[in-house]
Amino acid sequence: MESRDTDWDGVRLHVVTGKGGTGKTTVAAALALALAAGGRKVLLVEVEGRQGIAQIFDLPPLPYEERKIAVAPSGGDVYALSVDPEEAMLDYLEMFYGMRRAGRALTKMGVVDFATTVAPGFRDVLVTGKTTEAVRRRGKNGKRVYDAVVLDAPPTGRITRFLNVTQEVAGLARVGPIKNHSDLVSGVVKSPETAVHFVTLLEEMPVQETLDGIAELREAGLPAGGVFINMVRESQLPRTALDKAVKGGFDVTELALGLKAAGLADGADADAVAEALAGEVVEYAHRAVLEHEEREALSEAALPRYELPLLADGVDLAGLYELAESIRTQGAA
């Protein structure tokens, strides 16, 4: 197994959250590949029932079982699990009451749906419980089954409530198996073995939601991890040109002369093309300034930040491995 230093040495549960549309599931998948590189075994878990992992890895829908889905760079395996609350309930009944068969009868009666609707915190205990069990699990040789677990968690606006299971079930059960189970889950989630990472774009709403989520997480005593800035565009122009464009000092005449000299346009066409290009440069420059401001805002969170490139061809399997390599290069795995 390859040894390496990372920003998250000792962390075994990586929870990934983010505002919808930021690429949360993609980053979770890339992080799992990065963590598995060099001969490790990593479990990637999803809990929202969207089959996002299967789509990213171009696989059929995942069943409620852990199965190998990818080989990481330099060896290492990524397994995946799509948690189904109903099946997690059956596991729970078997674990604490030995009632799996009776549990199946209850699910047919709709009792599980009723219970998780009346007490939604209990549903979160079921799915997080399955994840933290994988973190704690050991094989017959006494070693951990997985070197790390990556949880593709609910969006930022719900993450603190989702993870704060002890608080969520406090009104449901103060003693007994449910309370004990939630305490067990909380013991993992609030430990140094866990880090909650945020995925964002360099846009105002995702950045603000990220900052709000980090603040809520800290207030609840949950461990904030890093910030993954996704879909970052590489700068196409030097800083001096951007500054001129923002200040309205971009020289259209000079651009037209350059187009003529390069043989890309001639006469009136050069002037028209230069005018159009200048408008795009100004628009691009203003966007670059806004992105710089959002980076500054994220720095206030005082968390490690990682920038992942915008992939021109979209996120296919090759792109996923490219993102994983970027994550490793920046020391996040």
Automatic annotation (TrEMBL):
Q: Which Gene3D superfamilies match?
A: P-loop containing nucleotide triphosphate hydrolases
| Signal peptide (UniProt feature, chain positions) | none
- A single Pfam family it belongs to is ArsA_ATPase
Q: One GO molecular-function annotation for this sequence? A: ATP hydrolysis activity
Q: Which domain of life is it from?
A: Bacteria
Q: Which residues form the ArsA/GET3 Anion-transporting ATPase-like domain?
A: 13-170
Its name, as the record gives it, is AAA family ATPase
Species of origin reads: Nonomuraea montanisoli
